Amino acid sequence: MLSAAVLLSFSAQADMTPFIGGSLQKIERQHKGKPFILAFWSASCTHCPTELKALGELSRRYPKLEVVLVAADTPAEAPELERLAQDYGVAKQARWVFADAQPERLRYEIDRRWYGELPRTYFYDGRGARQGRSGVQPAEQLEQWVVEHLK
């Protein structure tokens, strides 16, 4: 677990929030009653740019779309993650980064059936249900979900 001083120093450097135990519940409370997309990615993920660019484009076309991004990297990589968020067009989205020395604990808390494959995307319908999918979600399917849930 990171110390409070490290967390404060980190948050002053970047627009990313440390993702620690309990962060998922905080995100879910913040978006309660609203549909949103929670997307896990990494700077080293080969397939993540495709999905992040599609999410950035959807966010521009559908301003009401709530997207929360969580990088499964470390706070030390925040500058690179920030640069990539700019490049992918998702810098305006809420951005978090894993900040636990044991990322397995975070993955277990997020989804006991998730083993770390990226990208990993969760679709929250606004009524409390969520659906998780691994791999790149085709842009057409992402848009279909947005159209169905942002009526």
Automatic annotation (TrEMBL):
Transmembrane segments: none annotated. InterPro entries: AhpC/TSA, Thioredoxin-like_sf, Thioredoxin_domain. Residues 1-151 form the Thioredoxin domain. Pfam families: AhpC-TSA (PF00578). It comes from the Bacteria. This is TlpA family protein disulfide reductase. It comes from Dechloromonas hankyongensis.
